[in-house]
Amino acid sequence: MSVAASKSHYQSEEFARRLRGRYAAERNFKIAGVAALALASMMLVVLLTSIVSKGYTAFWQSQIRLEVTLDKAQVEERNFTAILRQAIYAQFPQITDRTGKRTLNELLSSGAPYELEALVKQNPAIVGTTQTIWVRSDDEIDQFVKGYFPRNAPEAERRLNDAKIAAIDTLVAQGSLVQSFNTTLFSAGDSREAEQAGIWGAIVGSMLTLLVTMALSVPIGVAAAVYLEEFAPKNKWTDLIEVNINNLAAVPSIIFGLLGLAVFLGFFGLPRSAPVVGGLVMALMTLPVIIISARVALKSVPPSIREAALGIGASPLQTVTHHVLPLAMPGILTGTIIGMARALGETAPLLMIGMVAFIVDIPHGMTDSATVLPVQIYMWADSPERAFTERTSAAIMVLLGFLIVMNGLAVFLRKKFERRW
Amino acid sequence: MQITVLVLILALLTVSGYQMGRTRAAASVGGRLVELHSVPSYHGFYVALWAGLPALFLFVLWTASEGWLIMRMVMSALPDRLSGGDPQVLNLLKADILNIAHGISTGRDVDPAVTAAAAHYNSLRAISDWSLLAIGASLAVVGLAYGRQHISPNLRARNRVERVVSIALVICSMVAILTTVGIVLSLLFEALRFFTMVSPIDFLFGVHWSPQMAMRADQVGSSGSFGIIPLFSGTLLITVIAMVVAVPVGLMSAIYMSEYANPNVRTWLKPILEILAGIPTVVYGFFAALTMAPFVRSIGHGLGLDVSSESALSAGIVMGVMIIPFVSSLSDDVINAVPQSLRDGSYGLGATKSETIRQVVIPAALPGIVAAVMLAVSRAIGETMIVTMASGLTANLTANPLDAVTTVTTQIATLLVGDQEFDSPKTLSAFGLGLVLFLVTLSLNMVALRVVQKYREKYD
């Protein structure tokens, strides 16, 4: 009787409906999980494509070919602007009126005379001769050639008037206006003119800052981890240190900037915008990351190693320096690289200590004014010119490239040296 | 220059001290090393420490106090008409002297006395550098000689060296405490100065924020310009939007990865989230300002809504994307920590996988998930670059996600970027904001860590 009843129960319409409902819920739940991951990956793809599509053209820059006659008198007067102007007028013999000539002047980068001057300084023998040189075009011309300004909009709404477009078309048809690899981007410092702006100054600044960060946070962090993991007695004091480290790891980065501003700049009077201060602030910020990862690495070395070393008469410090540390090194190294990658991408604390200044020169020392790559991105992102948007994206690609290399190295080290005991 | 030379000399002396110590120790027992108390390399380290450490201490003390001392000497030598002013003017004067001394133009007409003071500063600095070089180098040589003298077969070199090293280890581990103390003190000190100008009540409960107004002397501390309520409402709005994006997506990703995905799929999915976590915030900010904001705006226009070009929505969404990996990796850990026996029991009763997850795994992991969300909230509150680049500067007290709002971190960043005087309430208010921000994130973190610790081993 009960068997029959339960059988009918399991075969009842209501049971089947409920089961269908439960399986549907199961399916929907699984779909929700897939959808969440799909959304996350989609955002990543959108982010990367939007940056690459905005910025890949920045790696090329329009150059204009000119036949310059380096007249001796003009060179002595350092009137390189006039030399360039004569050269560009010579390419357009039909244009003689003032407006037309002004249009032609605007084709060239405002930095072109300095470029020419540098060329002459480098090779004084060319004075008095006629040379074929390539100079950068103005950034608007560059953007037009790259197709960012619509050509068929009404003239009043266009950045470039008809005369300029005609001149550009002529140059392109002559083969005198071509795109070539943008070396300026990788060799110059910042500039107000997009075509003369580069990220080399920011890269050097980033490297100097990271050097200071690494020199401070790695030894201090590893020493602190060794102490806490190997020597520290378990008492209130070490508990306090641990709580501190965990909290510091979660303090917003901008607070470290305030600390740097008040202590390093305000109290110790260190120079503003200097990589040494940036490095100090970053070192304090990455210290918890390095301590935590180094402790994990030390913890993964089995106690038998320590016992064996102690057993043959090594002192505790010898045990650590001769055996435990070398075995934990790959893990420590991985954590260090990840910490450095984080420091490389960090912006907010550096804004506080003045690394956001407009700096044209390439920094040469730890106390020179400098900026770093992420801050350069932040500053360029504010510029309204189209050419700067393009360069911002290019700078982001370079920054992401560095980060990928660093993280890839960390993964490689982990894979290669990871040891299971 | 002198400093580089000093560092080189110190390095050289330390290395040669090590060599000397080793050879002398070996020589002192005629090569029969067993008669030594410590192995020769410890004698080497002993001498090297004597050569390096005292000079290093001197170097650190000297460079820490040098700037301050020299500045005092320069200021006291100034003519009375310049040095008599109030502290604010004096600070400006100091900055001018420093700038001229470093060869940076101030862009103003400069008093000849200031130029003279800058020259005085530079000459004092040169004297200081040379004397540091001389004293530091001789201290190192004396230390080296002293340490070398002490070497004998019975010298307990290992014990002494290890003692120094363990003291160094303790000092290194205290840097974390020092940093916290430094943060608290610097924030408190500057914030207290701010609260002497603006009452804390007005600061915490005021509903108007316009620090720019207080730039004019007659308006210093004028009531109502420093109310942080609109900043907090803005921060909260963006945080809520970010959480609405990050928590469901992050949690569902974690659940799928730990419960459904097979190991092969997981090795492909995990890096995607790791890449999202590794992208610098400034890149997210650029994306929010240049891609997300116009996108949100055009969708809003399509729906007939009026969307600000710096809407809280776009900044919040992008911040949510940034936090997804954070939520997902933390929840992944707590979900994996739920013992398999609980799942097996649930399956044994006939529950489907999703029923097991919803009714057994998630309740078991709930404290950890709550802690993860709290940590994520604390991150969202403290995040600076996305909101600085993509949200506005106007302090609107609004709950409309399509409006522009400003946040605490944005204000800190904008108040302190560019030229600033250290004594205006405008600059100091940033430290007041920083203190509040620090306290809020600290308490969130503390509570979250406590929750994790308290419930971590409940099922083991």
From TrEMBL, chain B:
Molecular-function GO terms, alphabetical: phosphate transmembrane transporter activity
Annotated membrane topology: Multi-pass membrane protein
The ABC transmembrane type-1 domain, residue ranges: 232-448
Pfam families: BPD_transp_1, DUF3708
Transmembrane segments: 43-64, 130-147, 167-189, 231-251, 272-296, 316-339, 360-381, 430-452
One biological process term in Gene Ontology: phosphate ion transport
GO cellular component: plasma membrane
Annotated keywords: Cell inner membrane, Cell membrane, Membrane, Phosphate transport, Transmembrane, Transmembrane helix, Transport
InterPro entries: MetI-like, MetI-like_sf, Phosphate_PstC, PstC_N
Superkingdom: Bacteria
Compartmental location: Cell inner membrane; Cell membrane
Keyword Cell membrane: yes
Biological role stated in the UniProt entry: Part of the binding-protein-dependent transport system for phosphate; probably responsible for the translocation of the substrate across the membrane.
NCBIfam families: phosphate_pstC
Family indicated by similarity: Belongs to the binding-protein-dependent transport system permease family. CysTW subfamily.
Protein name per the record: Phosphate transport system permease protein
Upper taxonomic lineage: Bacteria, Pseudomonadati, Pseudomonadota, Alphaproteobacteria, Rhodospirillales
Gene that this polypeptide is encoded by: pstC
